[in-house]
Amino acid sequence: MIRIDEKKGIFALYTKHTCMILKACDGFVGLAYYGEKIRFAETDYLCRTDVRPFTPDKLPGEGVSFHSAFPHVYPFYGCGNYRESAFRVEQADGSDTCCFKYIGCSTSKEKPKIPNLPQSFTRNCNTETLILYLHDAQAGVLAEIMYTLFQDSDVIAQDVKIQNQGQKPVMLRRAFSSCLHLEGDLELITLNGTWARERHVQREPVRYGVQSIGSLNGASSHTHNPFLAVVRPETTETSGEAWGMAFVYSGNFIACAEKDYQEKTQILMGIHPDTFCWELESGKSFYTPEVLLNYSPRGLGRFSRNYHDFIRNHIIRSKWQYQERPVLVNSWEAAYFDFDTDKLLHLADTALACGLDMLVLDDGWFGHRDDDTTSLGDWFVNEEKIPEGMEWLGEEIQRRNLKFGLWFEPEMISQDSELFRKHPEWAVQIPGRDMTLSRNQCVLDMTRPEVRNYLFRSMADIIHEADISYVKWDMNRQITEAYTPTLPPHRQKEFFHRYILGVYELQEQLLKTFPDLLLENCAGGGGRFDCGMLYYSPQIWCSDNTDACDRAEIQLGTSLCYPPSCMGAHISVCPNHTVGRNTDFMTRAHVALAGTFGYEMDLMRLTAKQVKQIQEQLKLYHQYSHLTREGRFYRLMQNKYWIAWQFVSTEHTETLVTVIQIRNQANQVRKHLKLQGLIPEGIYLFDGKRYTGGQLMKIGLPIAPMWGDGVSRLLHITMELSD
Q1: What are phi and psi of 120, to 5 degrees?
Q2: CB of 300 within 8 A of CB of 235?
Q3: This prediction's pTM
Q4: Cis preceding linkage at 575, omega within 30
Q5: Does residue 126 sit in helix, strand or coil?
Q6: Is the pLDDT of residue 612 over 90?
Q7: CA distance 249 to 276
Q8: Other C-beta atoms within 10 Å of 687: how many?
Q9: Which of 121, 158, 438, 488 is the most interior residue, by most CB within 10 Å?
Q10: Residue 54: what pLDDT?
Q11: Which amino acids are annotated catalytic?
Q12: Gyration radius (Cα) of the chain, Å
């Protein structure tokens, strides 16, 4: 609900449980409050218009005094605000000062579309959007700041449209998507890591100055995720305030927190300015990617579930979001590059005997690819390995009542490939400079329409020919020597944004052509795990590290923002191929059950006992996958000895608890694991005993010690229903 008091200059945005108050003061709009839903009488003092700055201005109302203290909803550069700016524009005379003044507002029952970008959408609920119009008359630039509210959510979607209303082109040097202003002692939570150690939680105090995370490698990256949370020092899973930003974008980004002399913290998120500049011609508009704003007064658990529900309902479009996913086996760890049709069909027969639904053929099926040095870009069948052709192979797999999936790495090209020999100019490179290789491969220039057209035709032909049900889209290296000959020299910093727009366009085209396709994104594991990718694929490969103990930590970190139903999670062999650790076979299954569930192993080497275990694991998946897809997720415990989490049905009548003993302790004391999300007065049944919901949440469920490291238990608890 949006309420506007034009006389007082107040814009009030009310979600189910929160409110954001924006205030117009002296021609500028500031963020007065963002938090729990409350009523307001006086708001002027919240914008600090009477605060003296660090300079001895004569009056608090003078320019520098005002701008250095005012909580601008879209901070601009050059008029006295010396904090990080959200917007910076270079005009024809070389100056880069801007002064956005409020000139009006409007509301809409429809959510405005953001051309060519992933974005939240309505699904069975009403929306309302507030649009603030901020104008710089001298620069001739209009900014439309958009806040969209969803009837069923506390998440607010924000984006910005920049229009050049002047007579000459201007250069956008910085065009962020969102800004928040918060007060008091705060801590910053980010998700950081590297390949095979993605999205580990870092929590630290917000200090004076600027703290930031970001990516410059062309993807949202393994190193930092385009998400942050700001919390009170006392905030826990179940209590305390938490604010968040999640970027609906998959390219270079920055997110920063800046604490100033007023002890007020400004939070910004947007496209990384170090690799961005955009020539905006007269009459043209630029649209920033969307940021999802979130607030919870009841801890990080509620905060995460806000995001989970919103992403499932308003970001993921695929029909697979609410359907049980097929359980697949991926050929990579079974065969790597060494396979032929006999081996693939033997693997398919074994998968069928185990009860699986799909065989996915990974790397090595195309060109003359026998190792990782060749053939990327040659998306036609390797006839030495599959002489009968992909159509025949697809028919043989489907004759076994299995679905067929295929791996692609569309954005890459090998120098040893027919495509490179025919079109070397399609590889990203700077003329006259050596190309920097990574994984023996180069990057295709996705800004070029002819490249996207070639990739679409090549992929669509194979998908249609072999009746492919699932595509794993991989991206295994970062971008270097960023340059495209299709842009003039002064516009080369448009490359990175245009690149990711090209990726989005190709994925959109494929999904429109094959609407039932199950697309899974991947980038060397979890190197592009973000809301932008989830708009096109309902699941993303969470990490190349499939070790159960490591994966449990990675998946818990990921769950701060992203729903478990979108986490690609498979059972792999032991010793694990990444860390060499041996983990109990059922523990591996219990961790994978908290994601999409599948297998990364050579099924043909299984013992009869292991085949029976897989059949048992599949029964668990079919019994409980509805909880992973639709249930509420709770993080219960995480330390060096134990990790535990819980799924609860939307009716609170059923819960699935996973307890993993990472490391055993001698002479353990029996633990009482406090559950969450139950009905306090309800009677719950477990192991032949009756417990009240309040008892399970306040005292806990008794958990007996387990023997060994990397062992686990899966606990299914149901409510006793009256007749």
Answers
A1: -70, 155
A2: yes
A3: 0.96
A4: yes
A5: coil
A6: yes
A7: 14
A8: 10
A9: 158
A10: 54
A11: 474, 544
A12: 27
